Amino acid sequence: MLYGKEHVERYQETDGEEGHEWQGTVTLLLTTTGRRSGKRRTTPLIYQREGDAYLVVASNGGADEAPAWYRNLEADPTAHVQVKGEKFTARARNATPEEKPAYWEKMTAVWPAYDDYQRKTGREIPVVVLEPA
């Protein structure tokens, strides 16, 4: 099973032929710019389509601190996304309070552990909407 840096490298090398499907889900690669370092960082994330946009969850496994990629997007919402061989620039935003319940349900349908992660933390875990720029 691919994980971390190896997951990113195999995904990039094969245009997602290896790494797109992961533990019964599908993943995209999200590249953000480090808010302090200015370096580009790429993270594989479980996703679901929502029209032209992609949904991802900033769970960090239920930790009280949001994942680094999410904090990077807070500083600069422009990101690069790769879904299999498709690569594009996206603008990230949090799901609105009206959107979130349906989007959360859509994401927990493919990765039920998100509900467990939410129970582990007092932080409200955001659903992030990645819209093509």
TrEMBL record:
Region (Disordered): 1-20
InterPro entries, A to Z: F420H2_quin_Rdtase, Split_barrel_FMN-bd
Pfam families: F420H2_quin_red
Catalytic activity, as annotated: oxidized coenzyme F420-(gamma-L-Glu)(n) + a quinol + H(+) = reduced coenzyme F420-(gamma-L-Glu)(n) + a quinone
UniProt record similarity statement: Belongs to the F420H(2)-dependent quinone reductase family.
Identification of the protein by name: Nitroreductase family deazaflavin-dependent oxidoreductase
Origin species: Actinomadura graeca
Lineage: Bacteria, Bacillati, Actinomycetota, Actinomycetes, Streptosporangiales
